[in-house]
Amino acid sequence: MTNRAIEPFLADVAPDLLRPPINMVRLGLDPRGLAPRIVNLAEVRSLLRTRITRQLAAAPDPELTALYEELLAPGFDDASHPIESEVAIPMIFCFGGREIRLFSTTTTFGTPMDITLDEVAVESYYPTDAESAAYFTRSDVEARSAG
Question: Rounded to whole angstroms, how far apart are CA atoms 131 and 86?
Fold first, then answer.
């Protein structure tokens, strides 16, 4: 599910990455996806590497292992990036020379007893500054569409 604000992010993404079910890790890190637009890609990759490594240790999964090996295995970016917080992940995108600064949070639902909800998660993105927020205002969206 998306809204109108996501359209500029997906404009140049390879169509096969947008076929449901969309894998957000693949969409974000694949060179045919959002990766070329993420200014702090090494930091985002490092954060996702840590998160998925922890997920695999807790619950091994062949699909997640394959995704890790495809997009996150050491060698893509071996530089160490300190992880300040896993609660709010900073992401900086570049569109037409304009940096859009967002932070991402993921909300999961359920308790250890709720088997039916254990894989439900909602990822949300919020602007971190006034300039980035302005990018998503109605007048700014209309100006981008007209230009």
Answer: 24
Q: Is the peptide bond before 8 cis (omega within 30 degrees of 0)?
A: no
Residue whose structure tokens are 């999964």: 61
Binned at pLDDT 50, 70 and 90, residue 24 comes out as confident
For the entire predicted model, the pTM comes to 0.75
> What is the mean pLDDT of the segment spanning 127-147?
72
Q: Rg of the chain over CA atoms, in angstroms? A: 16
Is the backbone peptide bond immediately before 21 cis, with ω within 30 degrees of 0?
Answer: yes
CA–CA gap between residue 6 and residue 34 (Å, rounded): 11
Identify the DSSP state of 34. T
**DSSP letters for 38-82:** BTTHHHHHHHHHHHHHHHHHHS--HHHHHHHHHHTSTTS--S---
Chain centre distance of CA 104: 7
